[in-house]
Write a structure and sequence with these properties.
By secondary structure, the chain is mainly α. The protein has one domain. Helices cover 73% and strands 0% of the residues. The two termini are 24 Å apart. This is TLCD1 protein.
Length: 223
């Protein structure tokens, strides 16, 4: 994908632009894949702990590979300091997904969590639009409201459902305890990112101390 002039003119943005494009590709593939897996095998939703499908298993493997790739990309390009939140998130996801791949349990929960990638499609488009200084504000405005709707539908709703399910039905020992702890940490991260999104796109007067800050190398949603 050709780099916009606003990206080419700032060397620090080149890595971020390429990294976000890879993230966008993963979001499109994984998000549609998760939707297809649940549509093709809706009976999986009745057995979140022990339900199994080849498609869901391969999806978890595929996304684990992306998280490993993205972590190495951040580290090798010396972006660990500015993107440390991504590294924490990826470490949590990789450790949880590897345990699912090995045991074959809770794969349905992972597929439900990967519905978040549908939301990430529009979140990544938002960041790409901001980086490229797109001349059409209407495009950004339209994506802003779509992003908010899908954030609720594909990020907050599945996360809330799985959190309630794990706290009510999963034994807090062994793998169950490990995944529940990961899920609760992810809850905190998602709510933090949601507050950032609201402040940036809907309540800009509440933003704190970001004026004049150079964020070219930073990947996370901070502005």
């Amino acid at each position: 994908v050709p780099q916009p002039a606003a990206v080419r003119s700032r060397p620090g943005r080149v890595w971020r632009w390429r990294n976000l494009l890879v993230s966008f590709a993963h979001s499109v593939l994984a998000g549609l894949w998760a939707l297809f897996s649940l549509w093709h095998s809706p009976e999986l939703l009745s057995d979140i702990q022990d339900g199994y499908s080849v498609s869901g298993h391969l999806l978890v493997c595929f996304s684990s590979g992306y998280f490993i790739h993205d972590s190495l990309d951040i580290i090798f390009n010396h972006q660990s300091r500015s993107s440390w939140e991504y590294l924490v998130h990826h470490a949590m996801a990789i450790s949880a997904f590897v345990s699912l791949i090995i045991t074959g349990r809770f794969l349905v929960a992972a597929v439900l969590l990967l519905l978040v990638e549908v939301s990430n499609i529009f979140l990544t488009v938002r960041m790409l639009l901001k980086m490229s200084n797109v001349p059409s504000p209407a495009l950004y405005e339209a994506n802003k409201y779509i992003n908010l709707v899908v954030y609720f539908a594909f990020r907050l709703a599945p996360q809330a459902y799985l959190t309630c399910y794990f706290l009510r039905h999963v034994e807090l020992q062994g793998q169950g305890a490990f995944l529940t702890a990961n899920l609760l940490l992810l809850d905190a991260m998602i709510l933090m990112y949601f507050s950032r999104l609201l402040r940036s796109d809907f309540f800009p007067s509440l933003r704190k101390g970001s004026a004049g800050r150079d964020v070219d190398g930073e990947k996370f949603l901070i502005d």
